[in-house]
Write a structure and sequence with these properties.
Elements lengths: L3 E2 L4 H8 L4 E7 L3 E8 L3 E8 L2 H11 L5 E5 L6 H8 L4 E4 L15 H13 L11 H33 L13 H9 L4 H29 L18 H11 L8 H8 L3 E4 L7 E4 L5 H17 L1 H14 L2 H22 L8
Helix pairs in contact: 5-7, 5-8, 8-10, 10-11, 10-12, 11-12
Length: about 350
């Protein structure tokens, strides 16, 4: 499809009146949008607009052009442009960066080239949009993800305190493995040089701040899910309110996935096999953006293996076959994810096989 440049909307408008399909690619940035409007016959119009969702949509509507699809890459600007398009009756797609075709060799890269590429790939049917949450779902997910971020910072704060003690040859309290009350009191009263005392107090204050923030966020998380008696996901041993809330927030809806394979692939729990010729090949997990939820499912799988006979037998079978406990627990976490998905989709509680 050769491209014929059009410096205004006129060429595109003529194409639209003929019934030719039109695609729009937008390279979004904080302060500006680079826009490419491409017709099926190759007429191309590009321009730069301020980063104003409503103004851009109004410009498209004012042109009178019938748009087949508007596409842009997921990122910092969120879903505002998508929702504005949907409200205006324009079909829009938000695409994941790692799902956009890339050239085999290094080539020039500019905002104009990127928006043209998005329009061209859309016209060829090579792009698939991600699931966009509702405003309420996005708000709920922001609480979940903030809680996960604070949990990571809390873990780092604990490591920093232990590293500080080691670095300055200070004794580590016996109870510091579990951070019990006695070990904390010992840290608060430990004798040392004044400068070191001031530094340790600062680290301890930071630790308490993260603990308080995490507690507040966990209380907020619990308000986003059904009460425990009505939450089918919490009927599975090892699954508590935080895991249930994270599972719901990241999946958005159980109907998103046509089969369990797509679900586990989305979660990063589906092994990818690499095999060539007569070699036995190796399998590995492909990292994805669901790392925090994946970790929660693994933790829940350990509890499940301790409480459910079938889970313990399944874990043992995989471990004997692979020789690795890591593979065994990931396999059980994968099975747990499918169970949670089925329970949510069918709205029924878990029934133990014992």
């Amino acid at each position: 499809m050769g491209r014929k440049a059009s410096t205004t909307w006129v060429g595109i408008q003529e194409e639209s009146r003929k019934g030719v399909r039109i695609w729009i690619g937008v390279d979004v940035h904080k302060k500006s949008y680079s826009v490419a409007v491409l017709s099926e016959s190759g007429v191309l119009h590009t321009f730069v607009a301020p980063a104003d969702d409503r103004a851009l949509v109004e410009q498209i509507l004012a042109s009178g052009v019938t748009v087949n699809a508007l596409v842009y890459e997921a990122g910092l600007t969120g879903f505002g442009l998508y929702r504005t398009c949907q409200d205006a009756g324009i079909f829009a797609m938000v695409v994941s960066a790692n799902r956009i075709p890339r050239p085999a060799t290094q080539s020039a890269k500019t905002d104009k080239i990127d928006c043209i590429a998005l329009a061209r790939y859309a016209s060829m049917g090579l792009l698939k949009g991600i699931a966009v949450p509702t405003v309420q779902q996005e708000a709920t997910r922001s609480i979940i993800r903030r809680r996960q971020a604070v949990s990571r910072e809390l873990a780092k704060a604990k490591v920093m305190i232990k590293s500080f003690l080691t670095c300055h040859s200070l004794p580590e309290p016996d109870g510091l493995k579990t951070w019990n009350a006695e070990s904390r009191r010992e840290l608060d009263t430990m004798a040392m040089q004044p400068g070191l005392r001031f530094t340790l107090d600062s680290l301890l204050r930071q630790l308490r701040q993260f603990e308080e923030e995490k507690k507040l966020l966990e209380e907020a998380v619990k308000t986003t899910i059904p009460p425990k008696g009505d939450d089918v996901l919490q009927t599975v041993p090892g699954v508590g309110p935080i895991t249930s809330a994270a599972f719901r927030a990241e999946l958005l809806s159980p109907d998103r996935f046509e089969c369990s394979e797509k679900l586990t692939s989305f979660l990063g729990l589906a092994p990818v096999v690499s095999r060539s010729g007569e070699s036995r090949g190796k399998s590995r997990l492909v990292p994805c953006g669901q790392g925090a939820l994946r970790s929660m499912l693994v933790e829940a799988a350990w509890v499940l293996s301790a409480k459910e006979k079938w889970a313990k037998e399944y874990y043992s079978k995989i471990r004997r076959r692979s020789g690795l406990f890591q593979k065994a627990i990931i396999a059980l976490a994968r099975k747990l994810a499918v169970i949670l998905w089925c329970l949510w989709r069918e709205n029924r509680p878990y029934r133990s096989e014992q």
